[in-house]
Amino acid sequence: MNFCSDNVTGAAPEIMEALNAANEGSAMPYGDDELTRRAVQKIAEVFETEVEVFFVPTGTAANALALSVMAPGQGGIFCHQGSHVHNHEAGAPEFYTGGAKLYPLGGDGKFSTDILSDALDHAPADVHHVRPAAVTLSQTTERGTLYTIDEITALADVAHNKGLTIHMDGSRLANALAAQNAAPADMTWRAGIDILSLGASKNGALAAEAVVIFNRDLAKEFGYRRKRGGHLFSKMRFLAAQFDAYLEDGRWLRWAGHANQMAKRLGAGLAAIPSISLGGEVESNMLFPALPVTVADALNDAGFLFYRMSEGETINIRLVTAFNTKADDVDRFIEIAAD
Fold this sequence. Notes:
Blueprint: H1 13-22, H2 34-47, E1 52-56, H3 59-68, E2 75-80, H4 84-87, H5 92-97, E3 101-105, H6 113-121, E4 131-138, H7 149-161, E5 165-170, H8 173-180, H9 184-187, E6 195-199, E7 209-213, H10 222-228, H11 237-247, H12 251-271, E8 286-287, E9 290-292, H13 293-301, E10 307-308, E11 314-320, H14 327-338
Parallel strand pairs: 2-3, 2-4, 4-5, 5-6
Antiparallel strand pairs: 1-7, 6-7, 8-11, 9-11, 10-11
Helix pairs in contact: 1-11, 2-11, 8-12, 12-14, 13-14
């Protein structure tokens, strides 16, 4: 069983069925088709507002293109020091913005309003430095932690009061919504989010992400930037079909809820083992336990895969559960760890 990431899974059967259905017959290209229009309308209904939606195949494209309409080349983008945009996108945000600078902020998995306010208050305001332009936050964070709606609202207020826009990397937004039993609108635009990168690939889709623009003034150039960046699919219906199936009847939240439940089951079992420390509450579908390296080796020998985050006699590992994680695999992992 592979606990390295929720990216290691295949696609959900419902997604594959939707793709097969979309494969029948012909459809107009570049999103000018009924299936794409239906998927866009479904996103608007889920978020309870009119939105501009642009489908892309990868999370990196979604984040980088979103930030490209929020920050000019001479702008500054404030992000967490452990965020995906800062550490795992190979300079794509800087590339697509034409040179905007990322300002990494501290904090245990997420940054606070105090941290953001201090950074903005001390940002240089002269021609020799970039101008603060945008803030981006990850929900769920790279540490598996969650921002509450109140925290998001407070961060958005700080950003907007300084004239900045705010972006949410929602590659695991479904996990956050399921964990907090929150309405999508409450966690995004009602809390002040201007643009959302809405992920599906980590939660049962084959390859599908959506840039959901709530601040519609920011959508004016996006279509051109998506085309120039090479992410305008001619057969857009195959991206749209995935979202159409993904959002149908709340599937995306049920799938994410299952992943969260499996993570909590895993965490509870590991926490009962004296030699293992969770280091905190399991909030989503990720956990980072500390355990003896001998236990990690035994788990690897039994066929379990995961990332090692440190070295030594006691190490931290990253475990990520998914929409199709089996309880039997979780229980077997705990059993071997306890031996």
